[in-house]
Amino acid sequence: MMEFPQGFRKKFEEILKDEFPLLEMCLHKRARDCIRVNTLKISREELKERLEKIGWKLEEVPWYENAFFVETEGSLAKTNEFFLGYYYIQDAASLVPVIVLNPRPGEIVLDACASPGSKTTFIAELMKNEGLIIANDVTPKRIKALSFNLQKIGATNVVVTMMDARNIKRLGIKFDKILLDVPCSSSGTFISSFRVLQFWSQHVVKRLSKLQKQLLKAAVEVLKEDGVLVYSTCSLDPEENEENLEYAVKKLGLKPELIEVKGLKYRRGLEAYGKRRFEYSKFAIRFYPFDNLTEGFFVCKLRK
Amino acid sequence: MQAKKMSEEEVNELKRIVEKNYGVILDFSSFDCYINRRNEVYLIVKGISEDLIKIASFAGVYFGRLKRNEKIQLSVEGSQIVGKHATKNVAILDDENLARFLEGLKCKWKELINCERNNFVLIKHGNDFFGSGILREDGIESLVPKARRVMRTIKKV
C-alpha cells in the first residue's frame, strides 16, 4: 500500500491541516492524461476531429484552449498524429508557467532548465517560430530528449545549449523573458509517479532550495531591465517556493506581479510556514494534485 | 553545433536538388541553412548569430541529409515541408503498410507518383507525410529513425 514518507506526512499535515486527507487520497488517483495541440503543424479543430474519429474522448483544459484532457483505451503515444508531431503529451499543470510567461513572437526568451521540452515546445508555439528561444539544460542525456522533442514539434527558432544555468551569462545575451522552471524535489508530481517520494527528504529539499536561489541569481543577471522572469517548481515544499520568492524580491530586487489563471483552481502562496512569514506570497499561485487532478505546482511572476 | 552556414550558392544547389528529386521549388528565404560534416542540413529561423549556433548542442529543425548522386533523404519534418507540393517520388501507403513503415519494417505501396527505383521516396497517407523510405523492386525500406518508431503490432514483453 502506498503511503507518504513519515517526514512528508508530518510536514504537509501541518501545511494543509483539514485538507491533508485530500492530498492523501491522491495516492490512489492518477493525474488526468493531457495533450497539447502543436499549432505549428495542425489546427486545434482538425486534430480534435481526427482524434475523435479514432474514438478518443476529448475535454478542453479549462485554462488553455489548445490542450485537451483525454480518455482512451489506447496508448496516447501510438497514434499517427503523435508520430507526426501534431500533439505533445504533458501534464496539464505544466502548461501554467508558460501561460503566465506569455511569450510573444519576436521576443528573446530563455528556458533555463528546459528538458524534456514540454514548456520549450509550448513557448515555440506561442512565439509562432519567430524570435529566439535559448533552451538550456545540463547533461547530454537531457539535451538528447530536449532536441528530440524540439525536432518533432518543428521549432525553427530554438537554440539548445548545454551548460550549468548558473553560468548562463557566458552566452552574452540579455533576455526579454525567462522561464526558470528549476530542478526541484518534484513532490507535487507523486500523482504521476510515486517514485519521486522515495527520493524526498528534508535534506534534499534544503539542498535544492540553495541551488534554486543560485539559479535565480544567475537568471536575474541576464534579464533585461523591465524583463519578466517566471519562477516555477513542481514541488509543494515552501523552502523551494515561497522562500525563494522572498529571496528574489528582498535580495535580488525583483518586483512580484499578481497573476491570474482563468479556469485553473489554485490558491495563493503560503503566508507562513513554521516560524517563517512570507510577505510576498499573495503574488504567487500554488495548486495541489487534488485541486485539478494534475500535478501540483508553484508559479510566480517577477519583473526586473 | 558543428555546422556551417550555407552560402547563397549552396542554398541554391540545395533547392535544385530538392526540385530535381521531388518537383518542388522551395522557398528558404525565412531560414538560414546550416550543414554539418555528415551533410545534414538544418533550417534555423533567420537572424540568429553564427557564433551562437557554433556553441549550440542543437538548433532549428533537421531537414534532411544530402547524399551522393544529387539525392536527399528528408527527415519526417523535411518530408512535411516538401511533401505538400511534391510531384515526384511520393509513395502512397494504405493503413496496414503505414503501420509496418512506422515500425521500421519493409512495406508495400498502394500507389507511386513519379517514382524512381532505388531513390528516396516521401511516404504519404491521407494528406500527411511520414518521412522517407527507399523504393526497391519489391517494396519500400523504412527509414524511420529508431527513436521515433511506433510499435503497434510488436508488443513489449
Radius of gyration of chain B: 16 Å
Coarse structural class of chain A: alpha/beta
Which parts of chain B are unreliable, with pLDDT below 50 for 5 consecutive residues or more? Answer: none
Largest protein-protein interface: A-B, 30 and 29 residues
* CATH class call of one domain in chain A: Alpha Beta
Q: Roughly what fraction of the amino acids of chain A lie in strands? A: 15-25%
What's the overall average pLDDT of chain A, rounded?
97
Number of domains of chain B: 2
Q: Provide the CATH superfamily of one domain in chain A.
A: Vaccinia Virus protein VP39
Protein described:
The complex is a heterodimer of chains A (304) and B (157). Chain A is of the alpha/beta class and 304 residues long. Chain A has a domain at 93-303: Vaccinia Virus protein VP39 (Rossmann fold). Chain A has ten helices and 15 strands. In chain A, the strands form three sheets. In chain A, strands 5, 6, 7, 8, 9, 10, 11, 14 and 15 form a nine-stranded mixed β-sheet that branches. Chain A is globular. In chain A, 49% of the residues are buried. The mean pLDDT of chain A is 97. Chain B is of the alpha+beta class and 157 residues long. Chain B folds into two domains: 3-81; 89-148, Archaeosine Trna-guanine Transglycosylase, Chain: A, domain 4 (Roll), CATH 2.30.130. A five-stranded antiparallel β-sheet of chain B has the order 1-2-3-5-6. Chain B has a five-stranded mixed β-sheet with strand order 8-7-9-10-11. The mean pLDDT of chain B is 95. In chain B, a hairpin with a 3-residue loop joins strand 5 and strand 6. Chain B contains four helices and eleven strands. At the A-B interface, helix 4, helix 7 and strand 7 of A face strand 3, helix 2, strand 4 and helix 3 of B.
